[in-house]
Amino acid sequence: MTRYSRQTRMLVAVDCIIFGFDGQDLKLLLIKRGFDPEKGKWSLMGGFVQPEEALDAAAVRTLNKLTGLDGVYMEQLAAFGTPQRDPMERTLSVAYFALIDINLYKQQLTDEYKAEWFSLRDIPKLIFDHADMVHEAQARLRYKAAIHPLLFELLPPKFTIPQLQILFEAVYDAGFDKRNFSRKVLSTGLLVKQKEKERASSKRGAFYYKLDKRKYSAKFHAFLNFVSDPGNLR
């Protein structure tokens, strides 16, 4: 095959911003980089796109390699291509963000990469432009979560309304009125109330809910207005 003449070749990589929720904090999964440059420093999970591989397939492979999970919510974020972003060689990186239920990864997570969860309030210094990727992913997550029910991807199969509120407050780093939050969430019709209660947090307890998967799939791209004007929350 004839190649484009007088053009410089470059590497293409994918990097995964992996968010999880432990019931109290929104967290980021990081690894210790295993090779130079920046060997031993904290990094996002990434890898190079193979010649016969699509970008999405490379991101799925990278996530699966670290967590062992399939069918995880993942979305392409942006391309990062500053010429000097990787001091070793000119590399264009396409970033993805993923949302996983922390409880699902516990047995699958490989020890090979020395992965560790960090609260978004306490992220260590990251290599290259990975901090920029994380900041952009946070902004995208806040925007999408305001109008779509994607934060349910971070929750276990059954959860309480207070647990869901804690998740939203962690994502937006802001408080929400309990009564208004409950009313707005229940008005979506996405939740199915269970008979059992979670009693560890209070004597009265809070009812568990499950997600109606059929309605969730049907309404995922609907404008549900979970959070009004998320950009101005403090």
From TrEMBL:
Domain annotation Nudix hydrolase: ranges: 9-141
Xref: PROSITE patterns: NUDIX
Protein name: NUDIX domain-containing protein
Record-linked Pfam families: NUDIX, WHD_NrtR
InterPro entries found in the cross-reference section: NUDIX_hydrolase-like_dom_sf, NUDIX_hydrolase_dom, WH-like_DNA-bd_sf, WH_DNA-bd_sf, WHD_NrtR
Originating organism: Chitinophaga oryziterrae
PANTHER family named in the record: ADP-RIBOSE PYROPHOSPHATASE (PTHR43736), SLR1690 PROTEIN (PTHR43736:SF4)
Lineage of source species: Bacteria, Pseudomonadati, Bacteroidota, Chitinophagia, Chitinophagales
